[in-house]
Amino acid sequence: MDYRNKHILAPMVRVGTLPFRLMAAEYGADITYGEEIIDHKMLKCVRRANDSLGTTDFIEKGTNDVVFRTCPEEKNRVVFQMGTANAVRALTTAQMVCMDVAAIDINMGCPKSFSLSGGMGAALLTKPELIHDILTTLRRNLDLPVTCKIRLLKTSQETVELARRIERIGVAALAVHGRRVADRPRDPAQWNEIANVAAAVSIPVIANGDVFEYEDFDRIKQATGAASAMVARGALWNASIFDAGGKSPWEEAKREYVRKSILWDNDIKSTKHTLKEMIIHHSCLELPEGKAVIKSASYADLARLYGEEDYYNFVTEYRQKTKSR
């Protein structure tokens, strides 16, 4: 996979599932990261072909929950992002999905308590030996590209030193979120510190932070010297940010997400979470739309809410006919 001059969908928990990734790709995303999945969770899964959807599903034994779903259409661009704090578990997990994805990424930037308490995410930033162990183990045993995503450390020099150490391991690219662990999303991303990393290493650096319009892809690359740019919230709020021709109206992008979620039978809780995040940015959950999303118990409910009943009925009828053959 080439990591230069790419517009990339960032990993987003409960958002970056198959429907959202495919929608982003249709709008123009070159590479799409899945949501972070914890190694412990994946190791409880079995791989199954889903003939009715044309997908490959990783199903948690005992619950039958879909932990990760992908399809051949995205194989050459989807990145499986993993939360881990153990090299052996990381490798075992990566080997489970290596035939179905384009690359493996290790999350080293998540500041959420569930990641930190498990020694994962941003907790790895202070454990360079463990970082080396995990990435080296993956590099030596996988044919796929291996990457990682970090945040800024306490000082710019510390971030640069970690980036150089990661580069020496032989990763294919390094994504840098221009915020520190203590920073909040409203705090401005430090593009200048991403620039320090990009200037210090020769591998592609992927700049992440404060990309909200299509033009910001070039702006952040110019400002940082990064090879590529990654967007999270800007894509969540309107996935058509990837469209060089300009954003689609928010309502249109939202309905497209609902259609994709119906088509790919996305977990209803995940779909509702993503819709609520979209609404919170553009409107308010206390208004009728937000309340209706919260109350929705099925895709039939969401289809009625967004005027997609005909599409829902078509997909439902098609699936029934397919099953009866």
UniProtKB/TrEMBL annotation:
Q: Look up the record and name the cofactor or cofactors this protein needs.
A: FMN
Matches recorded under SUPFAM superfamilies: FMN-linked oxidoreductases
Which residue numbers delimit the DUS-like FMN-binding domain?
A: 9-260
Q: Which GO terms describe its cellular component?
A: cytoplasm
User: Which keywords, in A-to-Z order, does the entry hold?
Assistant: Flavoprotein, FMN, Oxidoreductase, tRNA processing
Matching InterPro entries: Aldolase_TIM, DUS-like_FMN-bd, tRNA-DUS-like, tRNA_hU_synthase_CS
Molecular function GO terms recorded: flavin adenine dinucleotide binding; tRNA dihydrouridine synthase activity
Which Pfam families does the annotation name?
Dus (PF01207)
Protein name, as recorded: DUS-like FMN-binding domain-containing protein
Could you tell me which species this protein originates from? Spirodela intermedia (Intermediate duckweed)
